[in-house]
């Protein structure tokens, strides 16, 4: 469906994250290795926390592989928190308002996966969104509506609980509509400081998700790797698929897990939906 | 806000309608004379009934004045029913799913005007849409939601009553949210056979609307006018503003009126919202 | 690089050619089977001869697989001559003026392949273009410049000779710049009546090219195939790769060959570059 | 035709330059006051020198007034040298490669005006471009070709002389083709340090051009003006038209003049074309 990347650490030029790795996200836009689709050419988005209090967003409907503005921005902008997402539409229109990451205040959100049989559940889920938030929904994707449900359930206060409640509702509504496996997801969200990433699916066979291992250790192992020298010791990546073939650089995130990345370290917590 | 044109009559090349007149719709995209904005450069759309049972749609986010594909299509396609619309966004995103005309089955719909303070009323109105229609809403405009309300109230069976009921609901919901003048509209809708056009606003000062007078009479008056020779006797236009300065060619549609164009003639009926 | 399709025959809806076949051109935009690239997502173009004397052109920078306007146009437009092309850029910008087919008067031209080391030869070739044609070059591709060279050498009078002269010049200029194999090409051109398609490369290993066999024979063989019933007896296709797996439906065009399609039949002529 | 802005000074957020002023460049994209056209909606571009050695470029074919990515970038990026340009096409295609500013190495270039009867002179001028530079021309505008002529004549070494030589050639070629007034121009170019701006036309009635006066003096005059507080003492602007109505803030650049902005000060030099 899609592929994404979440970076936390010392400020780094976007180019180092999006273009330089052997299996970079831009490369994955044409030749993803582990995705349901090899082509993720239905637009993309980047959210980055630079020197301003609010993150910037760049959304484009072009395939990432040939977008010149993405290349320019990536060569100029540095940031300590970066979310990037390439899209393979599951049916909704290719338009900027359907591009991830989505933003609300200081928060970003991006999703790989889908809400199964979305047309059947869309209205029930939309009605569950906090009324004051409802008119802020700009696009037509399941992913954005999922974000607004998480916001409704308190994402800005307690992300794991809010996501658990949103997933619980989605599964409940889905099953009431006869959908066996209502949700498939890897999700990342951040307030620009901590990042939370989730891997879960109703059927227990979720889309792939990996987190990077300690950069300083890797640098000792691979003293000649230029990519590792561009990254600081506190650099942490959570990605849909590894950005390269370096043995030991990536660990798969287990099923039904929430990865919390904060201050150069990460914790893995069990994740399960909350009863609606 | 926007400008539109609805043509009924014998098949004519789109070019004759969209480019050839002195104050053509494409010309109005840059220099509208009677609009709230002189520039209507936030995308456009054309719907046409050619030889197929369903109308075709061409939606673009580019300004009409420089869109080469519109010029090409207009030179090639002929149709007996044509809806065309140029957009000046009142805030929602410039994307194809926000371009008019909107389509449902054989029906087209386009709107100039706005639902006042749309974010305040959007949720209440969205919930009023027939649940089976709700997931078919693709964009984020007030105009498309208005279309789905009209469909909910039976547009396909009795357009004037359905529009009256939709407007009644919009005014009722608006007033409950403290909005003095909830709606401003000129609207056109068609099933590919009959066309209904409405001019109405809560405040009684509606956007401009005109309908063409009899072509054969005009042709006698202006034997040298090439535009009139490209049009058949049964040609009827309803437009946001006259396409030229020909004296006698255009009549203003009165406030609170529904124009019904059918079989080369038109009827003007009084229009008022129905109580919700 | 790219994939293309050239249709000649009784008028057919574009949809039958572009969407319906199992391995349709739109399908090939994401999953080409025989191309150098599996993804041909850097824009596309369609040229069609409808009821007007000049062909229409629809050029888009979006991937064909998600372009809604292409789907709409294809459902509405019928034509007896159709050129369609999906692009995988070899470096030049993704913009409408770089989309094939290119047009000059009644003529269309499209190309799969490349002029090797184009920057090295571009200026010499540009200077060779007839001065009155030079300012009509709108884009930046090798393919469009190749078209203008063919026009310079008399394409409108004798297409095989003009293409042979253009290729001869390209090889001559290329070799003077030390390029071993200056050209790789399958090309199609038409005046809206006859179609000429060429398969050639300096190295003698050209991109794939196929032409369809007789539809009436196929229809006897496959009485249940719906695709064959949508096509008339005079339907002829020349394509970069077969549109389906029907045994006997496609024949490979040999190396160094020009296929001339006219009046429901085709001739295969040997093709070789002319000395510059 | 177009409108542009060149900023030199301490780093400032792009937003302060492009959105905040009363008659900002983004405002001028819809409602220019002094341009030949009030609408400059045929794309735009921004070049900025941030913390990297080479300038970044953002080119878009959308009207500046509704481009969300421009707003995002402007809120995030700060730079000490900024070139911004909004386009009103005089005929060439609306595509990113036709958007100003154009870039070569560290150099940027932008132009308002036109080369009269460009198709007539294009080939002669293109052949005059240094052969090694020729294949780097990406678009189809007179403005980009003018840039490449200036580069050919030594822009990187002595900008006023190079521009004088390029204009001399353009006038010479134009007059040989019977064009009375071959060029109309305001041009700005920079190496990221010094900025050179030119106002000239063959007919002696050039497009408008203004430069800002000393900010510290203005700040004393207008202690309550927030715009002036966002700008440092060394801020210098050269613009197609004043960004506001502050009396004393803007001085018209005289006809046939080159403004050199360097180190917080500017010099005005007479400019005249060099004999070809």
UniProtKB/TrEMBL annotation, chains A, B, C, D:
Residue ranges the record marks as coiled coil: none
Domain annotation Glutamine amidotransferase type-2: ranges: 2-276
Gene3D superfamilies, per database record: Glutamine Phosphoribosylpyrophosphate, subunit 1, domain 1
Name of this protein: Class II glutamine amidotransferase
PANTHER family with a match to the protein in the record: GLUTAMINE AMIDOTRANSFERASE DUG3-RELATED
The organism's place on the tree of life at top rank: Bacteria
InterPro entries: EgtC-like (IPR026869), Gamma-glu_amide_hydrolase (IPR052373), GATase_2_dom (IPR017932), Ntn_hydrolases_N (IPR029055)
Keywords: Glutamine amidotransferase
PROSITE patterns the record matches: GATASE_TYPE_2
Annotated organism of origin: Arthrobacter humicola
This protein's record includes keyword Nucleus: no
Any matching Pfam family: GATase_4
